[in-house]
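ESCALATION

Customer reports they have been waiting on this structure for their group meeting. Please prioritize. Original submission:
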Amino acid sequence: MKLTEENSDHRPGVRSAPHFNHSPKAEEISPRDRLTQVFGWIGVAGMVAVAMAYKGTLGLDIMFVVMAIVGVFSSSVDVLAFKPDWPYLLVRVAAMAGAVGLAIGLIRRGRRLRASCVRCGRTAAQRRDHLALGKLLAWFSLLPTGAYAALKTHWALGGTFALSDPSIFDGVTFWSPGFGDTVVMSALGSVMIMAMAYRWPRLPRLMLILPASAGIAMLVPLGIIGSGFAALQAIRGTVIDEALAWWLGLAVYPPFLVWGLCLLAVTVIFARATSQPCSSCGQG
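Update from on-call: job pushed to the front of the queue and completed.
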């Protein structure tokens, strides 16, 4: 990518903003470059598939690790077994790391081919701030978040809604692993997405973006895989757990996906809107 500096009023020492070269025509991108991109993204998809579906899923790994840590500090009855499978977890993490690294390389290569900024991907076109859309998605995400937190609170307090076996959670308290802690994390997640949507001041970007990214990595794959599995079970007329209502998976996993996609969109909008001007092209 080349940037040119022009002196619009021809005064010495006065420099105009950098300009981008025009994007290359489609025929200027060689078939070899296109083929490299295609096979590269196939490789990314393969590694993501390993991370999300090989002997488990990375989304559950994140949840199990968090719940296992919570369980260390909880003396309540542990009804749900949160035990990460460390060898396979490391394989899935390595696959995801490889996918991210390859994807970054392909994105940078694609930017060079399009003659856009290699560092940030921006062109000379003015960037739009989708603030209103972010706010709408943030409020919409509260529906699945609130419903999930309400269900876990209901069970923790002795409720039997959606349970075929009312005794399955006997001895559970609000602070048993997988109950009150998930309610608290759901509440914190709601605060986090609102903070990004409304650009609350005095909150460092990374303090919001990093936990949001972890939430996305957990919710989106879990929502996709869980929804597909729950739908398959419903079609076959079988149940995941006889102690739970047959429809519970369909009521829980699709909202997980909606929640994760809303969080993803709001995080991207927030990250782009609050980023500093690019040190390479000056766009911001």
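Sent to customer with the following note: The CA atoms of residues 14 and 44 lie 46 Å apart.
Escalation resolved.
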